[in-house]
Amino acid sequence: MNDMTQTPEMLISNMAKRARKAAVALARATDAQKAEALRSAARTLREREREIVAANARDMDNGAQNGLSPAMLDRLKLDSGRIAGIADAVEAVAGLADPVGAVIDEARRPNGMVLQRVRVPLGVIGIIYESRPNVTADAAALCLRSGNAVILRGGSEALESNRAIHAAMAEGVRAAGLPADAVQLVPITDRAAVGAMLKAAGLIDIIIPRGGKSLVARVQEEARVPVLAHLDGICHTFVHRTADAAMARQITLNAKMRRTGICGAMETLLIDKDFADPAPIISSLIDAGCEVRGDEGICALDTRVRPAADADWDTEYLDSVLSARIVSGLEEAMEHIDAHGSHHTDAIITEDAAAAEAFLNGVDSAIVMWNASSQFADGGEFGLGAEIGISTGRLHARGPVALEGLTTYKWIVRGTGQTRA
To answer: Engineered SS bond to 200: which of 65, 79, 204, 342, CB 3.0-4.6 Å?
Structure first.
């Protein structure tokens, strides 16, 4: 029975069983073997550039006919330079330190037993994503480098591109002597395949969604498998009364306008009522093309500010739109973030170290910052080399999830004949 004649449930079950066998082989593979598999995959991606570009052209034609926006088409497009960048990224992951086998901590018990917590792979990871075909290579590389098998389910708009990239990755892995089943791509576009992955408890160990809010919401609502994700990136920047005025203008402008469509972009600006120079912050944002929606205090600073509605405080715009509010001080700022934030990334700008520490310790977000732009909420910027996504959950991994976040641990106990009374 081929892939196209199986039910989605049968297909995912069979893929997951093959992935489990591959995961066992990966767990036993050496660091050098995994690194070489990725270098081999990068070489194959470069060698198959022509086929990948041709496959992408078919996706681009279909996307244009189906009315994809120019922004979506740009995210979908692959050319020689972008394929080279994908291959370079795979090679970069090959050069990262292998987390598997690292000893987290070690203790010797009074009876002489030695206990260690040691990092091990998660097992079989399912990744559900949209639009960007580079995710096929990025996700496969991160999972394999951390010793995990992966089942990839990309969006229908990038079907041909994903197939071509996956074929190159799988061939490179196979050529290096590791099982190609370590990197599998769901071959059908039926949405039921997503549902089958979400219900594959016992077959898939964790699901990671990468895409828009509707995709992530569906995954979180329907999954019977643990999920590592964030739904919203409602990120705040609080300008404390002691903030340096020039720094505040520079950071807030960057936090919002560098790239408005990423999850680390500032969506709400809070300004202390005792901050001496708030108007230039607002005017610089508006001058840069940002629509500011503010409370009465913010509206009084610039006639171009539009009144904010209640919904604005709970909105992830992912666009050149910002909500802004005057607050009475640090406590009210933290209360606002607690009530309206999404536990993603929140920042304070202040020259008062005590206020900064109170904010850093009191705000319950995956990433909290002092005198830095929230746009740094990225695994590469954190020195992790690459990331599979950002998690706002409280279990397992939090913040940018890279190789270490794709592992768990086991206890290793070494004795010398001890028995328990």
So the answer is: 204
Please tell me if the domain spanning 3-230+399-413 has the same topology as the one spanning 235-381.
no
Token couple for 38: 């990725």
* pLDDT reported for residue 4: 63
The CATH T-level fold of domain 235-381 is Aldehyde Dehydrogenase; Chain A, domain 2 (3.40.309)
Which tokens in the block code for residue 400?
A: 């940018």
Both structure tokens of 245? 């005025």
**Section 90-105 average pLDDT:** 95
- CA distance readout (Å), 47 to 34, 55, 64, 120: 20, 14, 28, 33
- What rounded mean pLDDT belongs to the chain? 95
- Which pairs with CB-CB distance under 8 Å and at least 24 residues apart come from 293-296? 293/321, 293/322, 293/323, 293/324, 294/323, 294/324, 294/325, 295/324, 295/325, 295/326
346-387 pLDDT tens trace? 999 999 999 999 999 999 999 999 999 999 999 889 988 778
d(CA 403, CA 97) in angstroms, rounded, equals 9
Average the pLDDT over 277-299 and give the result: 98
Coil, strand or helix: which one is 235?
strand
62 conformational bin, left if phi > 0, alpha if psi -120 to 50, beta if neither: alpha
List the structure tokens of 88: 């370079």
CB 312 within 8 A of CB 323: yes
Closest to 274 measured CA to CA, from 296, 297, 241: 241
Q: What is the DSSP secondary-structure string of 125-163?
A: EEEEE-S-THHHHHHHHHHHHTT-EEEEE--GGGHHHHH
Neighbours of 365 (CB within 10 A): 22
**Residues 147-199: tens digit of each pLDDT:** 999 999 999 999 999 999 999 999 999 999 999 999 999 999 999 999 999 99
φ/ψ of residue 42, rounded to 5 = -65, -40
The half-sphere exposure of 345 on its side-chain side, counting CA atoms within 13 A, is 24
Instruction: Compute the Cα dihedral for 46, 50, 53, 54 and give only its sign.
Output: negative
- pLDDT surpasses 90 at 11: yes
pLDDT at 132 (0 to 100): 87
Helices (H) and strands (E) in the chain, counts: 14, 16
Query: How is the chain split into domains, by residue range?
Result: 3-230+399-413, 235-381
The CATH-assigned architecture of domain 3-230+399-413 is 3-Layer(aba) Sandwich (3.40)
